[in-house]
Amino acid sequence: MPDVFERLGRALEGRYRLERELGAGGMATVYLAEDLKHDRKVAIKVLKPELAAVLGAERFVQEIKTTAALQHPHILPLFDSGEAGGFVQAITTTARAH
Questions:
Q1: Which of 28-37, 45-54, 89-98 tops mean pLDDT?
Q2: SS (H, E, C) 24-82
Q3: Is 98 within a domain?
Q4: Burial (0-12, 13-18, 19+ Cβ within 10 Å), 41
Q5: CA gap 72, 25 in Å, rounded
């Protein structure tokens, strides 16, 4: 069975190209990716599939909505969000060039 990185890469194919994992926390994993439409680096925060299956995605979706409403120099702006291939994700700028 393909790993999460491969499955997510296929789910986002044509829109984003995953490059590597940047980090992981208790709820989500963040990946560096290329936004193919806008030719820029982005960070894709993805809810861990095992948490989505047990807890549902509602808390993560609420976090996305809250982030989208905020404007502050120390908060990364939200570019996009959604679900693809069973993965719930939020797409932001990267904190710095990688």
A1: 28-37
A2: ECCCEEEEEEEECCCCEEEEEEEECHHHHHHHCCHHHHHHHHHHHHCCCCCCCCEEEEE
A3: no
A4: middle
A5: 23
Token pair of 68, please? 């989208």
Residues 38 and 80: beta-carbon distance below 8 Å: no
Instruction: Please report the pLDDT score of residue 1 as a whole number.
Output: 47
E strand or H helix at 89: strand 87-92
Encoded tokens for 3: 């790993």
* Residue 12, in any domain of the structure: yes
Give the pLDDT band (50/70/90) at residue 58.
Answer: confident
Domain enclosing residue 88, as ranges: 4-92
Which residues sit opposite 30 in a β-bridge? 23, 45
Buried b (16+ CB within 10 A) or exposed e, 42-74: bbbbbbbeebbeeeebeebbebbeebeeeeeee
